[in-house]
Amino acid sequence: MFSRALLSGQHARSVVSLGTRATATSVSSNAASQTQGDNPPEWRRPVRLQEPGKVRMGFIPEEWFQFFYKKTGVTGPYTFAVTLSTYMFSKEIFVCEHEFYNGLSLAILCIAAVKLTGPKLAAYLDKEIDEYENLWNKSRQDYKDSIINCIEGEKKAQKSMEGQLLLIVAKRENVALQLEADYRRRLMTAYNDVKRRLDFQVEKLNIEKRITQKNLAEWVVAKVQASITPDQEKQNIDKCISDLAAMAKA
């Protein structure tokens, strides 16, 4: 019976070694296909697993069972475990002394602690990790928002600079209009001054002409009056009276 267990254990070890080689060969071929295939290697950010890997019996990874399924079927891993245990116990490679039972008790206590307090502790740790991750994401998002705000502020500053250029052009036009208005005001002032002086000269000439005419008329009248004798004046008065009488009869 022990020889059969030994043979089965050796067979299982050979199967494990072959499987390990096959796995290493497949991993190396997959790595080579990734480096030389259609998908070139590139740096990728590592992603934290949300859930732990699947296990059986509390500590055996599911991948080990899947490895045996391809070679020996469903009962392969259990047969290998029983055979290896029988071989180790029969050859006293693994001796069941008092420490073994202490370890078995400790394992039972650990499993019970994991089953009872594991979900609560995992939820608490997940919450802490989520808060820590949210804090980092928030700080990164805040930094991104600050950069975006700086970019928007720079765009607004550029637009305001364009508005400042337009404002400068408008101010230049206003200054040009003010200069034009002051130029026209000065032209009007010069025009009014010249017009006033010309009007003064015209009025002076008119006054001089009127005074000349008045003096000339008075001089002529004085000369005429001086040339009329009293007899001529009497004759003129009589003639005027006769003319008035004739006009009255008519």
Describe the protein in words.
By secondary structure, the chain is an all-alpha fold. The protein has a domain at 1-29 and 51-95. The protein has 5 helices and 2 strands, in the order H-E-E-H-H-H-H. The protein has helices spanning 2-36, 62-72, 76-90, 98-227, 230-249; strands at 55-56, 60-61. A two-stranded antiparallel ribbon has the order 1-2. Strand 1 and strand 2 form a beta hairpin. Helix 1 packs across helix 3. The longest helix is centred in the middle third of the chain and has 130 residues, at 98-227. The radius of gyration is 65 Å and the shape is rod-shaped. The protein starts with a helix and ends with a helix. The model is unreliable at 1-40 (pLDDT under 50).
Task: Note the topology.
Blueprint: H1 2-36, E1 55-56, E2 60-61, H2 62-72, H3 76-90, H4 98-227, H5 230-249
Antiparallel strand pairs: 1-2
Short description:
The protein is built from five helices and two strands.
